[in-house]
Amino acid sequence: MHFGLTEEQKLLQETVRSFVAGECPPQVVRAVFDAGGAHDPALWKGLSELGVAGMVVPEVYGGAGLELLDLALVAEELGAGAVPAPFLGHAMACVALSLGASESQRERWLPALASGELVGTVGWSEPGGVIDPEAFTVEFREGALFGAKSLVPNASAAGLLVVAGPDGRLFVVERGAPGLRTEAVSNIDRTRPLEKVILEGVPAEELEQPVGDRVRDAGLVLLAADAFGCGHRLVRMSAEYAKARQQFGRPIAEFQAVKHQLANMAVEIDPSRALWWFAAHAFDHMPEEREKAAALAKAHITDRAARVARDAVEAHGGLGFTWECDVQIYFKRAAFDRVVLGTPDQHRDRIADLGGY
């Protein structure tokens, strides 16, 4: 049995990694970060031309027809590069329509989503940190939605919003629909805007299949992969800094305490790769394991990435606390991944419930 990536998956990841290195170097990320948070349309166009926008969209609608693991491998590279793109919400919207839409709905929206011309996003959480569909208060009456969604990624940039309702039901809203309002939400990660979406009698279409739980699980896996990429990058940044920083005429990387700190950071994050690989594989091939594996990957990896981010600040000394140091960008990305779609504690509670405890 083969437990590694295929040659095609390795090539996919290397291609995205090369694109990020060439088109989204640290100065590009910093420019978006300093501007206050908005995705770069040119960068998104480049990613879309690579096929990132439509990876899980069936080929008949212009996508690549790949699996969640392939998409998560891209998420790892975007996390490692702190790429400011509307990837998370768009990917979840593609999963929602690919799995749950009727044939007419697929024909209407999937080709534009696959090309990246139409940006999608998903409204899952509700005000107060509510992530459990059984507690959702959004209502669908007479063809219209009423309620609110919080922490919606890139809502203003999206032309298509998928709204999660109770019992796994999903509804599609197009940009400019009457009664639809968005409000900016204070967000530590300035490369990925979050917004509150208010629905006041907004015309909407319900997707044919209630696949909300699968869309949520896909989002959890993608956040875990992004956090892994972010944490992995922070370990490497810290190691390189320790090799270059001189103290008492020697690189601080030669000091035993610094070696131990870097080793502990690597041990925190590197072994967790298997968690999100398995969760992504389970999404498409092991339905009985899917929900628990996704929750476990999200809870464990985003927690570990946040811890590594704190250690990276310490490893960089006084520089690590400054706005000028790129560590702060990754620190805030890790914080985003930890909170969006539910905190680690919320998902640990879900894991206990799923296990019957």
Proportion of residues in extended strands:
5-15%
Unreliable residue runs = none
The CATH topology name of the largest domain reads: Butyryl-CoA Dehydrogenase, subunit A, domain 3
Give helix % range: 40-55%
CATH class of the largest domain: Mainly Alpha
The main pleated sheet reads as: 4 strands, mixed
Full CATH superfamily name of the largest domain: Butyryl-CoA Dehydrogenase, subunit A, domain 3
Structural class: alpha+beta
Helix-strand topology string: HHHHHHEEEEEEEEHEEHHHHH
Summed up, the helix count is: 12
Say how many strands there are: 10
Query: In CATH terms, what is the architecture of the largest domain?
Result: Up-down Bundle
Q: What number is the mean pLDDT?
A: 95
Description:
With 357 residues, this protein is α+β, with helices and mostly antiparallel strands. The protein has three domains: 7-115, Acyl-CoA dehydrogenase/oxidase, N-terminal domain (Butyryl-Coa Dehydrogenase, subunit A, domain 1, Orthogonal Bundle), CATH 1.10.540; 120-206, Butyryl-CoA Dehydrogenase, subunit A, domain 2 (Beta Barrel), CATH 2.40.110; 212-354, Butyryl-CoA Dehydrogenase, subunit A, domain 3 (Up-down Bundle). The protein is built from twelve helices and ten strands. A hairpin with a 2-residue loop joins strand 9 and strand 10 (250-251).
